[in-house]
Design a protein that fits this description.
about 25% helix; 3-stranded mixed beta sheet; about 30% strand; alpha/beta; binds glutamine; Rossmann fold; 7-stranded mixed beta sheet; 5 helices; about 190 residues
Length: about 190
């Protein structure tokens, strides 16, 4: 079993590593294309999506990452990470990787509810609802065939989606004490394809 990589170019990658640590899952920081070898999954953290995409391109990771994902690398984007892996954005920038067939709108919850917290029932996660922290969160506005909605807020606002081995959440499980989403991703990442 290989470790879970955490893209560590910008954003709250340390919080993801600490969460994985707390459940005994080995992780490594990924900043260069060769570090995409020998990992079972990659987490793209929250932060600033334009900066993250810029750094992915500066470090020439876009093509190797697309290639790895095509071969089955599990990828999980949280918040800015969801923007990074989307197929299309409603916004002009950044140019996303297109790993998941979703259209995403940045900062779409609006000014009044810029940041908020709520409890969510998430498909595939047993036990009580998960506390979810949204910070200038993206909204999924369209989903393609084969994208599964795991959780939504309000009516028809997906905030956790999955397509094969790719996972995206608008919120930040790494900013809570609840490791269940990390355990779920590790299960996907470590499962035989
Ligand atoms: N609004 C940020 C962006 O567009 C994402 C915010 C976050 O990751 N908490 O990149």
């Amino acid at each position: 079993m290989a470790p879970i990589g955490v893209l560590a170019v910008q954003g709250d990658f340390l919080e993801h590593r600490n969460m994985l640590d707390s459940i005994g899952i080995e992780s490594v920081e990924v900043r260069l294309p060769e570090q995409l070898e020998n990992i079972d999954g990659l987490i793209i953290p929250g932060g600033e999506s334009t900066t993250i995409v810029q750094l992915i391109d500066i470090y020439e990771m876009r093509q190797p990452l697309l290639e790895k994902a095509r071969k089955g690398l599990a990828v999980w984007g949280t918040c800015a990470g969801m923007i990074v892996i989307a197929k299309h954005l409603k916004d002009k920038r950044p140019d996303p990787l297109g790993l998941m067939d979703i259209v995403v709108s940045r900062n779409a919850f609006g000014r009044q509810i810029d940041s908020f917290e709520t409890d969510l029932d998430i498909n595939g996660i047993d036990g009580p609802p998960m506390h979810a922290v949204f910070i200038r969160a993206p909204l999924v506005t369209e989903i393609g065939n084969g994208v599964e909605i795991l959780a939504e807020v309000g009516h028809g606002k997906p905030v956790a989606v999955k397509q094969n081995r790719i996972l995206a959440t608008s919120f930040h499980p790494e900013l809570t004490e609840d490791p269940r989403m990390h355990a779920m991703f590790a299960n996907i990442a470590h499962s035989i394809q």
